[in-house]
Design brief:
- The chain is of the alpha/beta class.
- The protein is 19% helix and 30% strand.
- It has eight helices and 22 strands.
- The strands form four sheets. An eleven-stranded mixed beta sheet has the order 1-2-3-4-6-5-9-13-11-12-14, sandwiched between helices. Strands 10, 15, 17, 20 and 22 form a five-stranded antiparallel beta sheet that branches. Strands 19-18-16-21 form a four-stranded antiparallel beta sheet, with no helix packed on it.
- A hairpin with a 5-residue loop joins strand 3 and strand 4.
- The longest helix has 17 residues.
- The chain is globular.
Length: 402
């Protein structure tokens, strides 16, 4: 689940501004001199074509799994599952952060689909969704390849917190879904993103699905974020048995992983799998079913399609209206996730420590509830709810407020 950059990281945003354009980071890494820290010492994706330059094994073995610093899935033996670690950015003391990679390479050639999770460290149902899909795959019966990367933001996942704790230039918490496609010569989170993007993800993807959940203290319904004006993207998003889709324009949030992949020519969507820090097994099953539909759509696995968005009477919203707290106190929601609301409808109240209702919150749009604060208390500025609605937001405006 994406979130809005905070004022406290303005300095980092200024530093990153010069490499915000998609592809610039790749070009920078390719042209970096030998003195640049951790520059392109190993093959990566070609800066123009995005094609892999080959697999590079570091020689390390961790828990019986080989470590790579670049991967071309075509180098792996067909008809098997392969379990690897990808060498990410270095820590302060020198060792690297290693990212888990599972590749199911089919016995026959075909499309390559990349499944990612763990961009935020508190998103557990997204990880479980990807693991469940991979456990269902039989490479001997597949045509094509599915690669899963389940713990992208390792430092955040180790403490089950949303953001990457970084102290390269100052103590900060970095949202990894605000740094893609990264910069191989940037600060640690940006460098980590670029290594993954250039040497692992982009070179091995004909399509991609980046799984998320709500954030700690704010849960969401089962929905997909997708640029529905892109036919290949719409085809994937429609195959999920979820009741909501946020049609996010391609220009919105260009530094999210799925939009960076899309800008690189790889059809990508972003499923949102409920609340953070928990396993919602019922909701996970919906996204597993949808992902298997996508793999069937691309001809990687065989079999009949499962349920799709048509079976769920899917609602497509083009924007999400946020309701933010203006007071401090206890929140009582008067509507639930997926409920339809009308303009002017009372959707929440807030009480003070004496039990008095200090404010009532009303919807300013007609649409469906897609996210709600799950923490019982809020202070001014905290998001309480967002509501999907049909009218597109003006270019440059917020389309997804949390």
């Amino acid at each position: 689940m994406s979130d809005k950059p905070e004022k406290g990281i303005a300095r980092r945003d200024l530093i990153m501004a010069s490499i915000a354009t998609v592809g610039a980071a790749t070009a920078l890494a390719t042209n970096a001199g030998p003195a640049a820290a951790q520059a392109s010492a190993t093959p990566s994706a070609d800066a123009t074509t995005g094609k892999s330059q080959g697999t590079v094994y570091t020689g390390e073995i961790i828990q019986g799994k080989k470590v790579v610093s670049a991967l071309d899935v075509n180098d792996l033996t067909p008809g098997q599952k392969h379990f690897l670690y990808f060498q990410g950015v270095q820590m302060h003391t020198g060792p690297h952060w290693y990212v888990s990679v599972t590749v199911a390479r089919g016995a026959k050639p075909g499309k390559r689909v990349v499944l990612t999770s763990g961009v935020h460290g508190d998103e557990m149902s997204s990880v479980h969704t990807v693991l469940t899909v991979m456990n269902q795959l039989d490479p001997t019966q597949m045509s094509g390849t599915v690669m899963a990367v389940t713990d992208i933001s390792r430092p955040a996942m180790e403490s089950m917190q949303r953001k990457w704790p970084n102290s390269s230039r100052s103590i900060d918490l970095i949202d990894m879904n605000r740094v893609w496609p990264g910069n191989e010569n940037g600060t640690a989170p940006s460098r980590h993103a670029a290594l993954l993007f250039n040497r692992l993800l982009r070179p091995n993807a004909d399509a991609a699905i980046d799984f998320h959940t709500g954030t700690t203290g704010f849960e969401v319904s089962a929905f997909n974020i997708a640029s529905m004006d892109v036919p290949e993207v719409k085809a994937m998003a429609d195959l999920y048995p979820v009741s909501q889709i946020l049609d996010m324009p391609k220009h919105a949030y260009p530094t999210t992983l799925h939009n960076s992949l899309l800008a690189a020519g790889i059809p990508s969507i972003c499923p949102e799998v409920g609340a953070a820090r928990v396993l919602d097994l019922k909701m996970i099953a919906q996204f597993v079913e949808g992902t298997m539909n996508v793999l069937k759509h691309h001809g990687i696995v065989a079999g009949p399609m499962g349920r799709t968005g048509k079976d769920m009477n899917v609602f497509i919203g083009h924007s999400a209206a946020a309701i933010a707290a203006t007071q401090g106190g206890f929140i009582e929601h008067l509507v639930k996730l997926n409920d339809k609301v009308e303009v002017g409808q009372k959707v929440a109240v807030q009480r003070n420590s004496f039990g008095d209702v200090v404010i009532e919150y009303r919807s300013n749009v007609t649409g469906e509830v897609a996210g709600q604060r799950s923490d019982a208390m809020a202070q001014p500025g905290d998001f309480l709810m967002f509501i999907l609605f049909e009218k597109p937001a003006p270019e440059g405006d917020e389309t997804y407020p949390e």
